[in-house]
């Protein structure tokens, strides 16, 4: 294939832009915030589930306390009722029966109050646990928000760079002959991104192989508009005044 030295030099610009595009595209996928957000999201889900469990346990304690408070209220009302009946009855037998019942009710009330205090202590501890887990969950959510904001800012800058690089690449590719551009694209794929390389001091800048012997003679004897390839990596060898041939 024939291509002017000027067009061949444009391939070096195209190669540089493609390398930079690959680097920036890799950066968009390798931002540290991606891994940070994944880790924080996993931690957030774990903490959210823990919060649900602890909140459920607290609700059970609240239900238990409400039941005990209801029992206390019932006993207190019965004590008040029986006390009033003692004060308004003239039957000794009824008074004795009521006093016996009152003694049992007061004993029951004392036991219920002790249970009530214990449950209230458990509820206080449960409330503290729920608050701690809730605070941890909210702190993680804030970390996720900050990490997402940092990621979005970085992505916005990288996407801006990608836009500029793609615009520049399109301009350079448009200045190259169609057949040469197609050859470059094919080499870019088969060479895993190494499509065009400057021959500097008889060394391929793509694979750092130094041309010697017949390989060097072939390059020296080829016309300036002949498209040559590195015998080692297959990249299009671009010759300039730096080639040393």
Report on the architecture of this protein.
- By secondary structure, this protein is mainly alpha-helical.
- It is built from 5 helices and 4 strands.
- It has helices at about 5-30, 30-90, 90-175, 180-190, 215-220; strands at about 195-200, 205, 230, 235-240.
- Strands 2-1-4-3 form a 4-stranded mixed beta sheet.
- Strand 3 (about 230) and strand 4 (about 235-240) form a beta hairpin.
- Helix 1 (about 5-30) packs antiparallel against helix 3.
- The two termini are about 20 Å apart.
Rg, rounded, reads: 42 Å
Q: Structural class, from helix and strand content?
A: mainly alpha
Main β-sheet: number of strands, strand sense, barrel status?
Answer: 4 strands, mixed
Number of strands: 4
- How far is it from the N-terminal to the C-terminal residue, by CA? 21 Å
Mean pLDDT, to the nearest integer, reads 96
Amount of helix: over 70%
Poorly predicted regions are none
Q: What is the helix tally?
A: 5
Strand content range: 5-15%
* Adjacency order of strands in the biggest sheet: 2-1-4-3
Question: Any idea what the shape is?
Answer: rod-shaped
What order do the helices and strands follow? HHHHEEHEE
Search tags:
mainly alpha; single chain; 76% helix; 245 residues
Q: What's the structural blueprint in terms of helices and strands?
A:
Layout: H1 5-29, H2 32-88, H3 92-174, H4 178-190, E1 196-200, E2 203-204, H5 213-221, E3 228-229, E4 236-239
Parallel strand pairs: 1-4
Antiparallel strand pairs: 1-2, 3-4
Helix pairs in contact: 1-3, 2-3
